[in-house]
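Work Package 3 (structural annotation) set out to generate three-dimensional models for the target panel prioritized at the project kickoff. During this period the team completed the workflow that converts sequence records into discrete structure tokens, so that structures can be stored uniformly alongside our sequence database. As a representative example, we reproduce one entry of 75 residues exactly as it appears in the project archive.
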Amino acid sequence: MLNNCAEMVVRRLEAEQFAGAHAGAAHTLLRSLEAFKRGVLLCDMAARGWRILYANEAWSKATGAAPCSTALCGT
């Protein structure tokens, strides 16, 4: 029983560590995309209607569309 408990704890710690690393990588990616002077638009091409995931400020200025206020627009 202790062996199973230890395995569950290790899995939980690994999942939390992965989530933290993933969040850090996403933040770095977003900072990099914001540095582009040209417009950047990321879409989910697997979703119906190609849902917009991200648009940087340059894209918003070029198109006149409202800028995304969050990392993932979801619209």
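The mean pLDDT is 74.
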